[in-house]
Specification:
The chain is α+β, with helices and mostly antiparallel strands. Helices cover about 40% and strands about 25% of the residues.
Length: about 230
């Protein structure tokens, strides 16, 4: 879902969004729509658009399910929305300078999984998936402009999302073991909100370890902390 808020500063607008939506800062992405500086006749303000990540836990379940069974869907667009969206993604990637085939792998209520087939998949993924995340964010913004703010668009290529998830789960358990042995905390690499939530969820049931997010912006870091048995 997307919402718009306005404040005197970016921080004020973000805090207003978090309070009204009842979300933590790492549960939504922020897009700056408009900035007006203070002047003699006008007060400054910042207008933002908030993209909530409320359905990413269900995305996690979908990726896990896909590891065990094939997911079938008609790869061709089924309506005007899907046609415009896939055309947008294809045009975007081609303007980046790369050939790509865009197809739909899975449909469900309020979720659309789209696959990018390209000989340049590694570039489309980027370091730690940042390029793929950026393309996905643009696709979701465009979906909103088409009147489908409630649809979560998930992009993948070469099964990166599944492989990344498996890597992060292993990282979480390995880090927990290191923290337990050293009795110190460890700060992990910057991650997007979904990846951070996966770390938090993986280690949530380990009694002598706790996690917290640190930093500002979309890509924060997770600190894994030894707390002992109480």
């Amino acid at each position: 879902m997307t919402y718009e808020y306005e404040g005197k500063t970016e921080k004020e607008a973000i805090e207003l969004a978090a309070n009204e939506l009842g979300l933590e800062r790492d549960q939504f992405d922020v897009e700056i729509l408009e900035t007006q500086k203070n002047s003699l006749f006008k007060k400054g303000y910042v207008k933002i658009r908030v993209h909530t990540l409320e359905d990413e836990n269900s995305s996690h379940n979908d990726f896990s399910q896909e590891k065990h069974s094939k997911i079938y869907a008609d790869p061709l667009p089924q309506d005007e929305f899907e046609e415009k969206l896939t055309d947008f993604i294809q045009t975007l990637v081609e303007k980046m300078g790369y050939e790509v085939k865009v197809s739909i792998t899975y449909r469900e209520a309020k979720k659309l999984n789209i696959k990018l087939d390209s000989s340049h998949s590694s570039i489309l993924i980027g370091r730690k998936g940042k390029n793929l995340d950026a393309i996905q964010l643009l696709a979701n913004i465009y979906a909103g402009r088409l009147g489908h703010e409630d649809v979560r668009v998930i992009l993948d290529t070469e099964n990166y999302r599944i492989r990344r998830e498996e890597t992060l789960v292993r990282l979480a358990y390995t880090t927990a073991d290191k923290v337990r042995s050293s009795k110190n905390s460890i700060l992990l690499e910057p991650m997007n909100p979904f990846e951070r939530r996966l770390i938090h969820t993986t280690l949530n049931d380990i009694p002598d370890v706790e996690t917290k997010s640190e930093g500002d912006g979309v890509y924060k870091q997770v600190r894994v902390i030894y707390k002992g048995i109480r």
